[in-house]
Design brief:
globular; Rossmann fold; 3 domains; binds methylmalonyl-coenzyme A; binds adenosine monophosphate; alpha/beta
Length: 506
Amino acid sequence: MNNHNLFAALRSAFPDDLDEVAIETGSGLLYSWRDLEHGSAMMANLLQSLGLPEGARIAVQVEKSVEALVLYLATLRAGFVFLPLNTAYQSAEIEYFIGNAEPAVVVCSSANFGWVSKIAFKAGTQNVFTLDDDRTGSLLARAAHCSDQHEVARKQPDDLAAILYTSGTTGRSKGAMLSHGNLLSNALVLKDYWGWKKGDVLVHALPIFHVHGLFVAIHGALINGSKMIWLAKFDPKNVIEKLPEATVFMGVPTLYVRLLAEPGLTLEACRNMRLFIAGSAPLLIETFREWQARTGHTILERYGMSETAMLTSNPCQDGERRGGTVGFALPGVSLRVQGDGGKPLPDGEIGNIHVKGPNVFSGYWRMPDKTAEEFTADGYFKTGDVGKIDEEGYITIVGRSKDLIISGGYNVYPAEIEGFINELPGVAESAVVGVPHPDFGEVGVAVVIAKSGATPDGLQIMAEMKSKMANFKVPKQCFMVSELPRNTMGKVQKNVLRERYKALFG
Ligand code: MCA
Ligand code: AMP
């Protein structure tokens, strides 16, 4: 019987010589493939020694480090479910995720141990470990006593590998359940589609708590046995310094905008590069063209979601990479565009994007009703994205039917921010909209009405938000107004607000 554990597939792609360098960090530390093999075995043994139930969730909120990557591999290897959490999340956000997912293990930084462990123990979690980005913490101390030999846990394709929280189209954050089969099928398709080959080296500069940095980038390199240059934080100068040693780079559009602002980004710096990949948010055509002119390379734009991993891609080798489009549906992915009435639309017409394929998740964690709402009767997932397909098959995303702001590659849900502002003293009502921003692509702007007699201040509202929620969610400006534009049904016209504030950031 085959073992369908994703780790087994990644492990089988390791080079024969396990002493080769697998990862080089920004500070020059070298990790061999043997280090990944032994490190993940030790941590997997530790996890398995805890007597956790089948399908236990391992929630992780730690700074990016190679050890954090090893923890991800160990979780797969031991057969548990990985639940990554953005390091920007503060206590109310963490309380929700831990309360909802009920993880058996929580791993956090030692600086956050006090408040995270309190939340975790209250929610019934029995094991809280620390892991810091300087190779210390109780997780490593405990794993150091475990054997470096470990038999990979047996898994079926449908067994759960990870839960990624996302708000999808409406409401509170939902945990998208991704299986070993979902992730492996996507990794294999991308290996082929993006022409990964021997000698490829990836510059990894993304966070590792979302699909892009965790799955697309890491699986891409590992399933090809490719070395990664591992940068803990994105710094454009560091990336440019490392490009001559690399062949592949992946980034959200903000990373490309920031790289272009550096004079060091030249043809010479990119001489050994094979492929630049962008996604997670729309890449402006100006960025696409400027990149071509400066580096001689055409960025390959692709499109995906937490619920589906990658769905479409511009071609790597055969065919034109067309700016402003997200390319073609990947092999195995069925993508269609439908009108509001559920009718398929002809080429060129704009409608709702629906997808189906081995990469598409099975549903939202413990939310069968929400899951049912997001799938059509014939099994397609409703992405909430709006787009069109041209006669050659190129797909263009033109907007979203979901109320979502994508800022520097992070998702911000206006409903969540509005709910928070509306609870503040002196606030009667608020609306949050996304407006264009030269660096983050799009940022949130809050428009607030005060309660009669009250005089809340925009700056105070933003300061209050900064103290209670992840910083990237905080609107970059907050306006106090006397009324909000409404349609005849009384619903706030967000399009009018978007138009009003569209030139705010130039
Ligand atoms: C930081 N800030 C932000 C953002 N990041 N505000 C809005 N949007 C953001 N993305 C805040 C900071 O807290 C700070 O606030 C101020 O903005 C300036 O921060 P700065 O120093 O410029 O930020 P940074 O630390 O350099 O981070 C920017 C970043 C980062 C490198 C672009 O946001 C990032 O790594 N983004 C990538 C996200 C990603 O990996 N997405 C993939 C999702 P203050 O001044 O108040 O302190 S996966 C996905 O979407 C799907 C599936 C897909 O298709 O891939
Ligand atoms: P997430 O919920 O973080 O997985 O974000 C998924 C959303 O990001 C998609 O539904 C799209 O709206 C957006 N997205 C991802 N890639 C692209 C892209 N290349 N162009 C436009 N939007 C994108």
